[in-house]
TrEMBL record:
Residue intervals of the ABC transporter domain: 325-565
Any GO MF annotation of the entry: ATP binding
Coiled-coil residue windows: none
Lineage: Bacteria, Pseudomonadati, Pseudomonadota, Alphaproteobacteria, Rhodobacterales
Residue stretches spanning the membrane: 29-56, 68-87, 108-136, 148-172
Protein name per its UniProtKB record: ATP-binding cassette domain-containing protein
Membrane topology recorded in Swiss-Prot or TrEMBL: Multi-pass membrane protein
Positions of the ABC transmembrane type-1 domain: 32-298
Length: 577
């Protein structure tokens, strides 16, 4: 049974885990084997006390050396079997941990993989530890306790009293450690954040000489963490010493109690010694179990939360129709009771149309693009991406979507993979490299990328140190264009800010429109207006106007001349007023 369980679990782990077939079978075998082996291990635990009982009460009075040798051999065999059984239980639990870890990580989207990997690693580490075995052994404690009661009720009562004292010490420890543990977590997190920020800010810190202030702040947090760590250590050490003292004393107290009962003829000498051994086999696992159970509950809650997160992110459905993006009564609120950062947004962009979203800094342009890209949920209304409209908020896979975020960043890999790896996954290879070259050409960055040490095969981290900010931005535009996406979302493409870049962007937008893509671009300035078919004006998160460019501009001009001022966004290259 053990071999089948471990082999099935091992197969599942190495195969990448098909939970429906091999995974489920392996899980059932493991549970069954764990239960059987748990019973066996705990029954074998009684071999030692039984040996004492027989030696003191039968072998010594009979004076039989042969019986003593046979009993000793039987005890050695029992303990060898118990060691094997416990080793097998540890191995089964470790494999169960690996299966659960795989369960958590497999469904996680790559973007959320860090959280899943962390919780998966915690689950695996717990199940591979002695604490997990201690939890599994807890249900067998009443059996041991029952045997002690059989020896004599007073011995059982002493064990229960000892367990109550150990539980009280555990409770005091939890109470005293709560404060230092909270302070330690806070200070350690602040120190880690200070260090994490020092990396990206290294140039600023060096140039302005503020490394001293940052270092002082980090040292303050680190010192607070160190002090809290010391206090926590003092508390746990004191409680551990007290627990150990109680356990050792109780073992001697059992002997004393047994001796007293033996003097009164209520207990045999063998039961006295066996009872003392049994007492240590009860109190040790009980003490371990007290710290292991809260740990197990924390790990279980973490695992359940990870499974819920995985279930809450189903794969995107296929694009149901032609490229089209529309919003109806869309609103976005960040946090409970907060003012909406977007409200009353309504628009529709068809295939082969370019929509320009214009607004001042902080108007809500990025928020709107993020909702369309499926990165932010709408709190009211809906956005449909593609031809369908049955799913509220958003539908459509991101694979057909080209996206240029405000602060583009790239995953590790080569430049070619960074640009076209997703558009051509899982194929990769030559088609991917060709697509990367074409997209880079369209974004005006091909020559810069070819001049890198290994051209398009240069690693992204190296390219990032060798390319200018503008070139990296163009590389991000190339990534958005790669694979000729049906829907193209460009957030404030700063390539538009110089004449050469403007011409490149204009050509890329016209080409996307010509092949029937729906294009949405955000900007603070109006110089992209001549390229657009539609314009959406936002102010303070609210839609001011939407429609064909000529119509919206004419409306603005009429409104402006009615109040005797110039039209705000009508100046082709002026900032939106
Ligand atoms: N996480 C957040 N929580 C609460 N409010 C936010 C959050 N992120 C952004 N905002 C607010 O939402 C509003 C719109 O922000 P958004 O980034 O969409 O502006 P924008 O029009 O793109 O500006 P810019 O042109 O400067 O990039 C801003 O007032 C901003 O302060």
């Amino acid at each position: 049974m053990l071999c089948r369980a471990i082999a099935a679990a091992g197969r599942q782990v190495t195969d990448g885990g098909s939970r429906d077939q091999g995974g489920g079978v392996a899980g059932h075998w493991l549970f069954a084997a764990l239960a059987v082996f748990g019973v066996a291990s705990n029954l074998l635990m009684l071999a030692g006390p039984l040996f004492m009982l027989v030696v003191y009460d039968i072998v010594l009075p009979a004076g039989s050396t042969e019986t003593l040798v046979v009993l000793l051999l039987m005890l050695a065999a029992a303990q060898a079997v118990q060691s094997l059984v416990d080793l097998s239980r540890s191995r089964m639990l470790a494999r169960m941990g690996a299966m659960l870890r795989q369960d958590e990580i497999a469904p996680a989207a790559f973007a959320g993989a860090a959280g899943a990997a962390q919780s998966g690693a915690t689950v695996q580490a717990f199940l591979g530890s002695a604490a997990a075995l201690a939890v599994l052994d807890l249900p067998f404690l009443p059996v041991m306790l029952g045997v002690l009661f059989l020896f004599h009720p007073l011995m059982g009562a002493l064990a229960i009293g000892g367990m109550a004292v150990l539980a009280a010490i555990g409770g005091v420890e939890r109470h005293l450690a709560r404060g230092p543990r909270r302070r330690l977590d806070l200070a350690a997190a602040s120190a880690a954040e200070e260090l994490a920020r020092a990396g990206p800010a290294a140039e600023y810190l060096a140039a302005t000489g503020q490394g001293g202030a940052a270092a002082r702040r980090w040292r303050r947090h680190d010192t607070a963490a160190m002090i809290a760590h010391l206090r926590l250590g003092d508390t746990t050490a004191a409680c551990a010493v007290a627990s150990r003292g109680v356990r050792v004393f109780l073992q001697s107290a059992t002997i004393a109690l047994g001796a007293g009962l033996a003097i009164r003829g209520e207990l045999t000498g063998g039961a006295m010694v066996a009872g003392s051994l049994l007492m240590s086999r009860i109190l040790g696992p009980f003490e371990q179990g007290m710290t292991a159970v809260p740990q197990a509950l924390r790990v279980w809650r973490m695992h359940r939360a990870a499974r819920r997160r995985a279930a809450a992110t189903p794969p995107a459905p296929p694009l149901p129709g032609p490229a089209r993006v529309a919003a109806e009564g869309l609103a976005v609120t960040m946090g409970e009771g907060a003012r909406p950062v977007l409200s009353g947004i309504e628009f529709a962009v068809g295939p082969g149309q370019i929509l320009l979203i214009l607004g001042r800094s902080g108007a809500g342009k990025t928020m709107l693009l993020r909702v369309i890209a499926g990165l932010l949920p709408a709190s009211a209304g809906r956005v449909t991406v593609g031809g369908g409209n049955s799913v509220p908020h958003r539908e459509g896979p991101s694979a057909v979507l080209g996206y240029l975020p405000t602060h583009p960043a790239f995953c590790a890999g080569t430049v070619a993979e960074a640009i076209a790896g997703d558009a051509h996954a899982p194929g990769g290879g030559e088609p991917m490299r060709t697509a990367a070259r074409q997209a880079a050409r369209a974004a005006g960055v091909e020559m810069a990328l070819l001049s890198l040490p290994q051209g398009f095969e240069t690693s992204v981290p190296e390219a990032e140190t060798r390319l200018s900010k503008g070139q990296l931005h163009r590389m991000a535009l190339a990534r958005a264009l790669a694979g000729r996406p049906d829907i193209l979302l460009l957030d404030d493409p700063d390539i538009a800010h110089d004449p050469e870049g403007f011409a490149i962007l204009a050509a890329a937008l016209r080409s996307a429109r010509a092949r029937g893509a729906s294009v949405i671009v955000t900007a603070r300035q109006a110089q992209l207006l001549p390229l657009a078919d539609l314009v959406l004006l936002i102010e303070g998160g609210r839609m001011q106007a939407f429609g064909p460019v000529g119509q919206v501009m004419a409306g603005l001009s009429r409104r402006a001349s009615a109040v005797g001022t110039a039209a705000p966004a009508s100046a082709p290259r002026g900032e939106v007023a």
